[in-house]
Amino acid sequence: MAKKKLGPGKCVHCLKDVEERNFDHVFPESWYPDSTPPDLEKWQIPSCIPCNSDYGRLEQDFLLKIGLCLDPFDPASKSIVEKTLRSLKSSAARNPRDARHRLGKGRKILTEALQGGQIPDHGIFPGLGNRRANVNEEPVAVLVPAESFQRITEKIVRGIYYIEDGIFIEPPYEIEFYALPENDIAPWKDALDRFGSVYAREPGIMVRRAVAHEDGISSLFEITFWKQFKTYASVSLSGEGQQEGPMSNDRPAKDEKPDEEHLAWAIDQRAEVQHTLRALYGFVRHHPPPSLDLDPKYLLDHLIGAAFSLWRAVFLADTFRDDIRIHQSQEAFLLKVITDNAITFADDKANRHWTVEYYLENAKFRLASAIAYADHHKGTRLTERLMPFLRLRGMRGAELTRYEWESAHYALRKLFKVIAPDTDLEAKSPTLPKPEGLDAFLHR
Ligand SMILES: [Zn+2]
Q1: Complete domains list, the chain, with CATH
Q2: d(CA 48, ligand 1 centre) in Å
Q3: What pLDDT score was predicted for residue 442?
């Protein structure tokens, strides 16, 4: 379809004022199944050209992967699954070049997919679990970037605000995304059942939204795709906005009292990582240089580095990593290094909005190198299994930073087993963050 051009104005996604915009489908046009009523009016919003094409690419990639995970029999998704399979079939190609392209796409998905025992019990998107439980074939899991779920959810939330209220979501309001397992959604469900309005373009998409009456803007969202899986989001004042009112972004971040639940977490995890360090110490002590081959030697160095960085990061994790605080921390940290020529833990702590990222990234880079090394030289197949745990960046809120930390520590312990298969260290799956800010909806 030729895209209708729109004059100058603001883009719903990036909020920039631009000269030229076009209409962007909130729920992408190719995602509407054939069972959609023909006269259904499709949601469209003004978007700048770069955002529109950026989303276009993301949505195409997402559909290609998700189309393989949807129910091939449900009328809500049947045509989507068929279309996806057709797009991979070389016999349906228009010419040899197209055929090669289709084969390549299919091969890429297969190499990235996990099979049978490789599939972790953790990380399967709620509602997109095994569809072929009764069939005697090995299950295959398709890897879909978590960021895609997040960005698509964000787009739909922005779209609903624009279409229903005619407003853009701008600071100090912000969108938080959640992928919640079934048993964690009870409080959200309750709020949505009691206060939710429904916006639907069925059977492709159904949105429920509960608006808080304090400000008439903050909202909870539940988005159901093809009647099969759901994503959740909240729109609320950012931490800073809540404490100090809007337009206060230029003030320095205050040092708040630590959250007690967070303190308990930090103490527990510090103990956990101490056990990891103890195990590494035991390994080093019992493997003096002559007895150690090249492989463990190389891995060991990375594992010790990652463990030390995680140890250091635990008590820095109580941060809300938004761009402004990170920037303030960077500036203060650099000044401290230049003027004092020394950095203590207190400095790390004071500038933790940046330093926590430094230590976490440091650990993750080392773990990624160790994974690549182990797969290449030791024949392990850890890349698919462990790399997803290193991709998350826990911006915005201590909960996500804790999740990022736990994910990296999980990968570290799994890697330690490569050099010390008999270790008694157990790798515990990271705990998925729980939704925040529900009290506002539940106790009013
Ligand atoms: Zn834009």
Answers
A1: 9-115 (no CATH), 147-243 (3.30.160), 260-441 (no CATH)
A2: 4
A3: 45
